[in-house]
Amino acid sequence: MAMNYKFVSLACFIFITSATASAQQNNINETEQAAVKAVIQNMFTAMKNSDTLLLKTCFSPTAVFQTVVSKLDEVMVKNETVQNFINSIGKQPVGSLDERIVFETVKTNKDLAIAWTPYEFYYKDKYSHNGVNSFQLVKLKEGWKIQYLIDTRYR
Questions:
Q1: β-strand pairing of 97-101 with 112-123
Q2: What pLDDT, on a 0 to 100 scale, did the predictor assign at position 12?
Q3: Does position 151 have pLDDT exceeding 60, yes or no?
Q4: Helix, strand, coil proportions of the chain in percent (round to 5)?
Q5: What pLDDT score does 23 carry?
Q6: Which residue has the higher pLDDT, 4 or 72?
Q7: CA atoms 81, 128, 152, 143: torsion sign
C-alpha cells in the first residue's frame, strides 16, 4: 500500500510540474507572438502613415523582400530592396496605402518566428488587390525584426 501511495504521489508531482512548465511555455509563446504581431502591425501602420522612420525599425539590417509574380503560365519571384520599399512608401500621401491583414498563423521558437497574413490592399480607399504575406522574423538584441517577407498579389 505504501508503494502505491509513493507511486501516485510521484505521478501527481510529475503531472503538476509538467502542467506548470507547459503553462509557463504557453505564456512565453503568447508574449512572443504578441511582440511579433506588433512589429508587423507597425509596418502596416507606417505604410498607412507614410512614416519611413517607423518603417525602418521593422526590418533587420539584412532583410530580404520579394514578391511572387504570376503571369499566364509563368511564376517568377521579383526581388526588391528594403530601402527601395521604404523610399516608395515615403513618397505616398498619408493615408493612401491601407493593407488590411488577418493573422492566420503566428509561431515562435526562441529567436525565429513566422507569420502568415492574408490581406486586402486599398489605395486611396479603393480596392487594389489581395494576396498573402509570409513573414520570417528574427529576435535581435533590439527585439523582433522582419528578416524575410514574400508576398503574392492577385486582382
A1: antiparallel
A2: 56
A3: yes
A4: 40, 45, 15
A5: 43
A6: 72
A7: positive
pLDDT at 88 over 60: yes
pLDDT tens digits along 107-135: 999 999 999 999 999 999 999 999 999 99
- What the chain holds in terms of domains, given with CATH numbers, is 2-152 (3.10.450.50)
* pLDDT at site 71: 86
Identify whether the C-beta of residue 135 lies closer than 8 Å to the C-beta of residue 148.
Answer: yes
CB atoms within 10 A of CB 7: 10
> What dihedral angle (degrees, nearest 10) is formed by the CA atoms of 46, 48, 137, 83?
-70
Q: Are 39 and 146 in contact (CB under 8 A)?
A: yes
CA distances from 111 to 19, 40, 108, 115, 138 (A): 24, 16, 7, 14, 5
C-alpha cell at 147: 528578416
Q: Find cell 498579389 and name the residue.
A: 153
Beta-carbon neighbour count of residue 65 at 10 Å? 19
Integer Cα distance of 72 and 40 in angstroms: 31
Per the structure block, which three cell numbers stand in for 101? 491583414
Predicted confidence at residue 14, as pLDDT, reads: 54
